[in-house]
């Protein structure tokens, strides 16, 4: 197996966000799917701190998935270990990776928070990290940074991408996925699939089944495959239930709901709800699911790479999330807008298509955006370099790869 020398891909957006919160009296919580780069972000940030003159004595870093720290999985032991490393009134940066591995970790976090001269950073691979007792204890006292695998722009910073054309790099990005270690592997289906299967198995067992006490792994995998094959398509819990029952398995809508919750809490899938643009309200039915990494999906489905339109939609959805938008699906009478992206600064509308070189396809993709009568930006993204920069009655057509690599 050919592996590039390990190089830390600069996760600039996340690193700058951490730096902006440095020394603030808030707990920094980094969440995201397993292997998306949370530990590496800590490594990058610690390197930055050292460049700023922070000494090793001022840094405590613990990874609770490392067997070296197995004795710290009891919360009293974890707290006492950290307390004993603190030196008088010296300002100390404390990093605890995968903190949810320690039952009762909430008490450790709360006790460290109330001590003086500590800047505390924690990571977790499950949304439950910020629910229940921790959310109650830390209400108003933490900020969350939601982390995803590599953006295409970050992917281009990897050594292997430097040896490729941008289009070739994007093809690999879509096919093999965006987990940060993927660019270090040789471009070989067997090698990459073996690595991705390992990630998938770990997430399935540790972050989904174990946390929700799910014993029927085969049923869980069936639901994952149904969701994976339907990215970018409206789907309901009942439809998932009916699909699985048609394959001979008995399952209730309530069970499907529990499994879906486990999958979204583990950051494998993200749900985008439908939004009525005219009524300015969210609709309860027929949302869409997007997978955190296309490499995972292609590994699960025999024909996962065939529906390029939905894959591009998945990539755009994740990129909008990275950029800090709240993303929903736009409904306008009988028309649908791929994405309604909202921040406190306003709204942007996005339509995504593989190509709009055909005039009829262009008209079809423009129609939903043209039906929106407000002054917010409307953007049509496609893989066509021809036509990029054109304005269609105020709707901006952009080349997807250019949009992905711009801020």
List keywords for this structure.
407 residues; Rossmann fold; single chain; eight-stranded mixed β-sheet; 20% strand; 13 strands; Trna Endonuclease, Chain: A, domain 1; alpha/beta; 41% helix; five-stranded parallel β-sheet; globular
Structure explained in plain terms:
- The protein is globular and about 70 Å long.
- The protein has helices spanning 12-20, 38-51, 75-85, 105-113, 133-137, 152-155, 159-162, 166-176, 189-212, 217-229, 237-246, 253-265, 294-300, 308-322, 359-370, 400-404; strands at 27-31, 59-63, 92-97, 118-124, 142-146, 269-276, 281-291, 326-332, 335-343, 346-352, 378-382, 391-392, 395-399.
- β8 and β9 form a beta hairpin.
- The chain is 41% helix and 20% strand.
- Among the domains are: 12-146, P-loop containing nucleotide triphosphate hydrolases (Rossmann fold, 3-Layer(aba) Sandwich), CATH 3.40.50.300; 307-407, 3-Layer(aba) Sandwich (Trna Endonuclease, Chain: A, domain 1), CATH 3.40.1350.
- The protein is built from 16 helices and 13 strands.
- The chain has an eight-stranded mixed sheet with strand order 7-6-8-9-10-11-13-12. Strands 2-3-4-1-5 form a five-stranded parallel sheet, with helices on both faces.
- It is an alpha/beta fold and 407 residues long.
CATH class descriptor name of the domain at 12-146:
Alpha Beta
CATH fold group of the domain at 12-146 = Rossmann fold
The helix count comes to 16
Termini separation comes to 35 Å
Question: How much strand content do the residues show?
Answer: 15-25%
Mean pLDDT: 92
Question: CATH homologous superfamily name of the domain at 12-146?
Answer: P-loop containing nucleotide triphosphate hydrolases
Instruction: State the share of residues found in helices, binned by percent.
Output: 40-55%
Estimated structural class = alpha/beta
Strand order of the largest sheet: 7-6-8-9-10-11-13-12
User: Which overall shape is indicated by the principal axes computed on the Cα atoms?
Assistant: globular
């Amino acid at each position: 197996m050919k592996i590039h020398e390990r190089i830390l891909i600069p996760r600039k957006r996340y690193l700058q966000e951490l730096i902006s919160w440095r020394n603030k009296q808030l707990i920094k919580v980094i969440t995201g799917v397993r292997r998306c780069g949370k530990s590496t972000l800590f490594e990058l940030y610690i390197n930055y701190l050292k460049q700023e003159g922070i000494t090793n004595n001022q840094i405590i870093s613990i990874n609770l998935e490392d067997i070296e720290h197995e004795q710290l999985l009891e919360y009293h032991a974890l707290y006492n270990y950290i307390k004993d490393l603190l030196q008088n009134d010296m300002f100390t940066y404390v990093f605890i990776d995968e903190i949810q591995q320690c039952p009762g970790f909430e008490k450790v976090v709360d006790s460290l928070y109330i001590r003086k001269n500590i800047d505390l950073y924690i990571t977790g691979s499950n949304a439950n990290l910020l629910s229940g007792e921790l959310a109650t204890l830390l209400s108003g006292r933490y900020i969350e940074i939601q982390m995803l695998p590599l953006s295409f722009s970050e992917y281009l910073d990897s050594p292997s991408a430097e040896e490729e054309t941008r289009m070739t790099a994007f093809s690999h990005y879509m096919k093999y996925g965006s987990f940060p270690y993927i660019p270090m592997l040789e471009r070989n289906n067997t090698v990459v699939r073996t690595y991705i299967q390992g990630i998938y198995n770990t997430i399935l067992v540790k972050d989904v089944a174990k946390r929700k006490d799910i014993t029927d792994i085969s049923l869980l995998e069936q639901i994952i495959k149904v969701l994976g094959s339907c990215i970018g398509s409206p789907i309901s819990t009942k439809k998932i239930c009916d699909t699985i029952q048609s394959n001979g398995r008995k399952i209730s809508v309530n069970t499907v709901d529990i499994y879906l919750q486990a999958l979204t809490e583990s950051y494998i899938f993200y749900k985008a709800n439908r939004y009525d643009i005219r009524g300015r309200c969210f609709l309860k039915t027929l949302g869409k699911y997007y997978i955190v990494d296309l490499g995972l999906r292609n590994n699960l489905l025999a024909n996962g790479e065939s529906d390029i339109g939905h894959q591009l939609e998945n990539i755009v959805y994740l990129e909008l999330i990275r950029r800090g938008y709240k993303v929903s699906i736009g409904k306008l009478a009988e028309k649908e807008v791929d994405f309604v992206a909202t921040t406190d600064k306003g709204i942007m509308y996005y339509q995504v298509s593989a190509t709009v070189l055909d005039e009829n396809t262009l008209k079809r993709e423009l129609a939903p955006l043209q039906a929106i009568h407000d002054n917010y930006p409307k953007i049509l993204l496609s893989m066509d370099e021809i036509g990029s920069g054109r304005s269609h009655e105020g709707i901006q057509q952009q080349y997807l790869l250019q949009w992905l690599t711009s801020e």
